[in-house]
Write a structure and sequence with these properties.
Layout: H1 5-34, H2 40-45, H3 48-72, H4 75-101, H5 103-115, H6 125-138, H7 176-186, H8 188-225
Length: 226
């Protein structure tokens, strides 16, 4: 039985796209990490950028592994590729379940990470400047406890009514940790959509790799018997 060339090259181009997407994710993540416009508060105390870098590297490695396995018709590479996709699929599923069940724990973890920066007035100048930018953008003051996180609230904490976020003292009454968590919640639908798309790609990759693996195995058995 000959190996189906359509399946072979479909798997190859699938993994090529997989590899290219990993390159794009890695490139964008590194740019955001080293960008001068990046905010040290969100970069260092939230795991988003580092997680994206790790995801980009893993996708690149898997895409390369799948391309080699498909074009060389190597059963070892294909079974390793299949096992890796299956592991990632299980981890993705587990992360989704834990994220849904432990949503409050995630919020508390974010607050604990940001709490380490208080008191804010004792932080280096670059941290204070980044936090003031964050306060202006999100219309918040302080990180966890509000204006009391500062010895003297800076101008970025001050607001002019009418504004529902503006307190009676002319300061934003919402801590930045609360605003950050709200942004995370708003973006959750996008994250779920991306995770769902990745899950479909993983399933497709597993199906194609296993079909090709079985065809190569049958071809090897037929050749031996002959």
């Amino acid at each position: 039985m000959a190996v189906n060339k359509s399946i072979k090259y479909l798997l190859f181009f699938f993994n090529l796209l997989f590899w290219l997407s990993g390159c794009i994710i890695l490139g964008v993540s590194i740019y955001l990490k080293v960008s001068k416009d990046g905010n040290s508060i969100t970069n260092e105390y939230l795991p988003g950028i580092d997680l994206l870098i790790a995801v980009g590297v893993i996708i690149m490695l898997l895409g390369f592994l799948g391309c080699c396995g498909a074009i060389k018709e190597n059963r070892c590479l294909l079974i390793l590729f299949f096992a890796s996709l299956l592991l990632i699929f299980i981890l993705l599923l587990a992360a989704g379940i834990l994220g849904a069940v432990g949503e409050n724990k995630v919020k508390e973890w974010v607050r604990e990470r940001l709490q380490k920066l208080t008191p804010l007035s004792n932080q280096p100048e670059n941290i204070r400047k980044d936090l003031e930018k964050l306060q202006e953008e999100l219309k918040c003051c302080g990180l966890v406890n509000g204006a009391s996180d500062w010895a003297v609230p800076p101008d970025s904490c001050r607001c002019v009514g009418p504004d529902p976020l503006c307190g009676p003292a002319g300061l934003y009454n919402t801590p930045c940790s609360t605003q950050i968590i709200r942004l995370m919640e708003k973006n959750m639908e996008v994250v779920i959509g991306i995770a769902f798309a990745i899950a479909i790609l993983l399933i497709a990759g597993m199906v194609f790799s296993m079909i090709l693996y079985c065809q190569i195995t049958k071809q090897g058995g037929a050749t031996t018997a002959a």
